[in-house]
Design goal:
The protein has 96 residues and is mainly alpha-helical. The protein contains three helices and two strands. The longest helix has 22 residues.
């Protein structure tokens, strides 16, 4: 990877880099591309396609029936409530 190639990629990505940064990233980008080349050389014919490398498991808790929360108790802790509902300031059509 040359400094001209890194500068070109930076221009395409609309990233402004100093000459020191171009020098710095030239080595880094070269190592990334070399690693990608090494991955291309791997024989993966016997490896099934995966969406995720780790076994997935359900992380949700079991549904357990419980007593409902008392609405009046919840509304009593709200800053404003009326007619069994929370009162909130209007957001649609309000002038900001």
């Amino acid at each position: 990877m040359s400094t001209d190639q890194v500068a070109h990629v930076a221009r395409l990505a609309r990233i402004e880099l100093t000459s020191d940064e171009i020098e710095h990233y030239t080595g880094h980008l070269g190592r990334v591309l070399e690693h990608a080349r090494q991955l291309e050389d791997l024989d993966l014919d016997d490896v099934p396609p995966l969406a995720h490398p780790y076994p997935l498991r359900n992380v949700f808790r079991d549904d357990v029936e419980s007593s409902p929360v008392d609405r009046d108790e919840v509304l009593s802790q709200a800053p404003a409530a009326s007619d069994g509902q929370f009162e909130v300031p209007p957001v649609l059509g309000a002038e900001a």
